[in-house]
Amino acid sequence: MTFTILIVDDQAVVRAGFRTILESEPDLEIVGEAADGQEAVRLARRLRPDLVIMDVRMPVLDGIAATERLAGAGVADPVAVLVVTTFDLDEYVFSALRGGARGFLLKDVEPDELVAAVRVVAAGQGLVAPGVTRRLVAEFARTSKPPRVLEPLPALTGREHDTLVLLARGLSNVEIAQTLTVSVSTVKTHVANLLAKIGCRDRVQAIIYAYEHGVVEPGNP
């Protein structure tokens, strides 16, 4: 299976670097490049790539606004967006994820990690590196408003609830498995089940859900 990719970054050297890394893989095809968010939206709607690699700070239209137009709430046929940026603790990052991005990486990521992330997100899953998740959660906790319960919480099992709490704290599957004294495969099953029950497509949305619905509270370890 081949995944098609649109690269969006205002720096030509960054686009060229991503292209060189990704085009070396037989299952990844670059179908276009854009230097700003407005061009990204236009090309993504026309080319319908499996994945858009999106920078955050760009002229004309920034990556956050572009992500919302391509993958935000109310978009009938969303495009998968992977935000790759320099700004790991910038407020823009959380806004982009909340706006529909399926993943987040830093630009200093190793080439093999970039390739792996592209495949995961293009295949429809969410991905945020565990260390980045912790910083993201810390920023969300710092700026979060009181939780708002939109509807009654679904019936999670005790293990599913524990898994959601630990996931929201930024733990990886391996760390959750160690904490709960279960296998990693069991954790993956718990994650898949709880995502289905709470109606979230990936662990990024699950983190947001957990804070918004009071499953975990900002500042409470």
From TrEMBL:
PROSITE patterns: HTH_LUXR_1, HTH_LUXR_2, RESPONSE_REGULATORY. Pfam families: GerE, Response_reg. Residues 4-122 form the Response regulatory domain. The keyword NAD does not apply. It comes from the Bacteria. GO terms for biological process: phosphorelay signal transduction system; regulation of DNA-templated transcription. This is DNA-binding NarL/FixJ family response regulator. InterPro entries: CheY-like_superfamily, NreC/VraR/RcsB-like_REC, Sig_transdc_resp-reg_C-effctor, Sig_transdc_resp-reg_receiver, Tscrpt_reg_LuxR_C, WalR-like. The modification 4-aspartylphosphate is found at D55. Coiled coil: none annotated. GO terms for molecular function: DNA binding. SMART domains: HTH_LUXR (SM00421), REC (SM00448). Residues 149-214 form the HTH luxR-type domain. Gene3D superfamilies: 3.40.50.2300. Keywords: DNA-binding, Phosphoprotein, Transcription, Transcription regulation. The keyword Transcription regulation applies.
